[in-house]
Write a structure and sequence with these properties.
Helices cover about 75% and strands about 0% of the residues. By secondary structure, the chain is mainly alpha-helical. α9 (about 140-155) packs antiparallel against α10 (about 160-170). The longest helix has 21 residues, at about 260-280. About 45% of the residues are buried.
Length: about 325
Amino acid sequence: MKKNIIITVMIAFCVGHVFCEDLNAMFQKAMKLGNEGKNEEAIEIYTQMIKKAPKAAQLYGNRSILLSRLGRYEDALRDCVDGLKIEPKNADLLNSAGVNCVSLGAYQAGQEYYREAIDVDPKFHYAWNNLGFVKYLSGEYDESVKALDKAIELDPKYYNAYLNRALAYIALEDYEAALPDMDHALSENDDAKLMIIKLYCLHNCDRKAFRRYKKDLKKHNCADPQQQAMLDFITRKWWQTGKSAMKKTVRENEDKPQHDYNEIMCEASFYYGMRYYFWKMKGLKRKYMQQCIDCDIPYFAENYMAKKILEDK
């Protein structure tokens, strides 16, 4: 639930530097590797660049994003702090520092970094979104909604802010208020997870609409076969094909790094748990929702929905 883009500033820095041509070539390679998911290789290039240009704050910022992707939040936060020693008023670095603090469970420190980022740039909608999210994590749901209102005001098409505000409304058990936000999020992202969260909201506020929407989802075709398998698994009575597809996905990713595997397990466990939630199989619901939480992926909506559903009677 975060997004940090600092490419433009970094390119601007490289121009005019004594290592300009060399750094720009390295930068392009690092960006390409990062976009391909080759984070370790990209990190190594940024490390080499930092040795050549140790006063380039944005290099620390870019490396911190890659470290965060790997779940190395302490290292990522250290990079942000090092970058802020060079540029204390860099809103991107302040925002990234907040993201890593929150991922480490330091919610108050995260809030402080987000507030500083907003002080530097009051129109920084990513920081407003992240502030709203950490308010949600801290149980300050009304304050979360206010911050997310601001993020949406600044960027009415920002998908994450609608999803985060919906989570806050769900925590407040205001399911009717959450539904328009889920529709906004779905208009930007045809994601089975979002459809299931919307189905959960309807289940809690309008059973007739719940049955209609569930019927519609049985006819829905996701572009991604895995997304479709997950949707089928939850919405169809005969769900063996979807179950087999999900098990295959988990099995095929067992050799991935632990953090990547945990992301896959978090998502899969959530879908299993939702299947059993809707079918009122409480024991299996608890098992898989707890398994989802134990994966400890702090920026997945599934993680927080699982906690909410475990609290449901």
